[in-house]
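Subject: complex prediction, re-run

Hi both,

The earlier run crashed halfway through, so I resubmitted it with identical inputs.
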Amino acid sequence: MGVINAEKSEFNEDQAACCQISVRRREPGLEEDEEWLILCSTQFLTGYYWALFDGHGGPEAAIIASNYLHYCIKQKLEEVVGAVTEASPPMHLSGRCVCDSDPQFVEEKHIRAEDLVVGALENAFQECDEVIGQEMEATNQTGGCTALAALYFQGKLYVANAGDSRAILVLKDSVVPMSCEFTPETERQRIQHLAFLFPSLLDGEFTRFEFPRRLKGDDVGQKVLYRDYFMEGWGYKTVEKADLKYPLVHGHGKQARLLGTLAVSRGLGDHQLKVIDTNIEVKPFLSCIPKVNVFDFTLHDIKEDDVLIMATDGLWDVLCNKEVAHMVRSFLAENRTDPHRFSELAKCLVCRARGKKRDHQWMLDDGHEASYDDISVFVIPLHNRGED
Amino acid sequence: MGVINAEKSEFNEDQAACCQISVRRREPGLEEDEEWLILCSTQFLTGYYWALFDGHGGPEAAIIASNYLHYCIKQKLEEVVGAVTEASPPMHLSGRCVCDSDPQFVEEKHIRAEDLVVGALENAFQECDEVIGQEMEATNQTGGCTALAALYFQGKLYVANAGDSRAILVLKDSVVPMSCEFTPETERQRIQHLAFLFPSLLDGEFTRFEFPRRLKGDDVGQKVLYRDYFMEGWGYKTVEKADLKYPLVHGHGKQARLLGTLAVSRGLGDHQLKVIDTNIEVKPFLSCIPKVNVFDFTLHDIKEDDVLIMATDGLWDVLCNKEVAHMVRSFLAENRTDPHRFSELAKCLVCRARGKKRDHQWMLDDGHEASYDDISVFVIPLHNRGED
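This time it finished cleanly. Structure:
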């Protein structure tokens, strides 16, 4: 893998992190079976890690996450490293079958080495969320952050996402989305279902039903469009007084909010977050678990200008995948020899999304309003010039 | 639409239903505004309905479902019919805006008429489940069933599925899956999550963790492969005594079971079902909500031999989509003039999956074991020969 570049605008709740992750691995068997401790050879499996954290309610959670998540990942990978180089991981980590049918069951379940890396990432996010909870409590700080982490390990790229940042692969002939966004809108059914199971979480202040707009007194007794937790479609319900409460998930697009408070439904931190002027906790509705997508480099012929783009929502609010891919390809084609071209491309993407100040407004080149949010971008070249 | 054909083998917990569903519709406004009741014209919107129900623990739930589900759908469609012919359904069913911004919010949320039909189907399944619960309790009967329902309404095909039956469209140049299966394996995370939230549902008899095989005393203290509710990947956990309990979701493929009891995770009925020799109820882990897929006929040029195939798992256990599509196309090409060719094709598909008796075994033509389960198949021609 190659150069790493991050650029951000002057507004500041975003944090970036990148590093090498080396996982210690002992040659199995030697140590115990032969008691020749001196012969026990130590090897390292080395991976590469990049991550973006978009903070809210202050930058603290994002800072802690940028300092700890890679360590949690390293730790969780170390717990499974004895099995991660096998085509089929063994039922027992020691590699010794207790039962003759073990390999058969592992094969039946299609468990592969990459599933251990996915599991390690899922567990690492959960661990990191606990660390943030402790650190914030100890220092009496509040806030949370989204987390988007990429790990290149054993020939595969793993992208783990909890929040509304996004990663895409821009390849010569295609664009491959490597993440999806988790917002109150995309996770409406999960959130409403939790409120259905535990109504006390809403403390009588919110309604779990979704309506196209906030209801008013005039609507009582009328039949209006609504959705409950089990519905992908819409129905009509006769409005009761209780339906006039503020909706659990409300608003559309960038305006959508969970409990009127948060614009994301997954991320790290927010352990102390309450809905303003109430005792209602937001954390039970949040998830710190990432969705992990895997891209196998050994199955693809990676070209020199192929890159992974990771960016916070500040970029994607104003530029779509297609626009970003177009900018990436034309910039790299026009700047073949610049040794800093990947850094320059990251800067260029940030500048495009930030726009230019005209009168008192920031505007894009095409006349649309520019992004007012924090903007962070990684441009990660994928082509391997003989290095590992 | 056209002919309907169902065929089943001699084993018998499957039920089929099909009928026309006409929804009464009044011309809006006239009745109330002008009080000329005599001028109020009644129109009907007519749809067509087919459904398959695969019973377990006896055929009773499947029989009730086949008698009631179409009625529940008719009722739920009638509740929204005033809005279902509009391109954007109105915020208020009466069509009168309480608030100027109503149409804007409906448009922002992308609410379309088809979302009302999807919502009606979701609500109808839930209603039908309640009816089955009452009927079974009243007559002291037990059991449940899967439900796969297709509705052709206003130029679109809606397929609602709760269980492990399947529907596919076999078109001239493509095969379009119209449903996905809900089994303890495909819904593992939802089921494990519920057990995490409400551990008492397992009454200390089951473990919510998934392992590649049932653990034994020898495994205690060792690190074995496992998954929890938040994991798509796998990890290793040190086995404790509690992990030796029977797993909440156990087995693979057709052997997968929920609470050691059920092979499906969605369906109707089973209100009284308990795990054998315990007080543990299965119903809390089941969902009666269907996933609805929509196919818009107005966007496709439907050919004469294009059909919808609906079948219970007895067919799909031994034949894949591709094999079924191949049989459909070659059978219809070879039988152009037979007026009963769609019925004959349904019979042919059932016979192929049932196989032939050789010695004491039922075998497929290709030497594999045939289906021992009930087999029901609908072949529904889609081509409109000038009829509506």
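Residues 281 and 364 of chain A are 38 Å apart (CA to CA).

- K.
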